């Protein structure tokens, strides 16, 4: 769907464990007019991460990524904004730390990223991945029902 109104995000462990950075990042989320629809702190396990990052299973960074994502609490979020997937990925900035530092220093990854792996946050890259990822983290949340509620229609 064009301009899909929801996305799924994760704030990664090194941000959640730093109260000042965590608070600042959450302020940037609301300053950028994202509405937090669901939010929960979660310590990820290997089986959940294997499902979540299945597409990266054969990449050289997979083990490093899984080890990092298990290293502390994360914050899982469902965010609402018109064109949420693209808006959130634009706010996050590029995956690679050298690109964030040189061309996107204001992005979330530019401000809070430490390396290609510890890059501060995750964002779904398609409607299909929003659906898959929301189901993993918020199995009781029905995207279709939410999108057809009068609350959303009125916005
Ligand atoms: P994400 O899925 O987290 O929103 O990030 P993305 O689309 O920008 O990047 P993707 O290629 O899907 O990679 C998923 C996560 O893997 C870690 N990564 N490490 N060279 C590396 O060490 C490397 N490359 C990717 C990052 O944590 C990235 O967010
Ligand atoms: Mg990705």
Automatic annotation (TrEMBL):
Its EC number is 2.7.4.6. The keyword Calcium does not apply. It holds the Pfam family NDK. Keywords: ATP-binding, Cytoplasm, Kinase, Magnesium, Metal-binding, Nucleotide metabolism, Nucleotide-binding, Transferase. It catalyses: a 2'-deoxyribonucleoside 5'-diphosphate + ATP = a 2'-deoxyribonucleoside 5'-triphosphate + ADP. ATP binds at residues 12, 61, 89, 95, 109, 119. GO terms for molecular function: ATP binding; metal ion binding; nucleoside diphosphate kinase activity. It comes from the Eukaryota. GO terms for biological process: CTP biosynthetic process; GTP biosynthetic process; UTP biosynthetic process. Residues 4-145 form the Nucleoside diphosphate kinase-like domain. The active site is at 122 (pros-phosphohistidine intermediate). Belongs to the NDK family. This is Nucleoside diphosphate kinase. It comes from Pseudolycoriella hygida. The lineage of its organism: Eukaryota, Metazoa, Ecdysozoa, Arthropoda, Hexapoda. The gene is nme6.
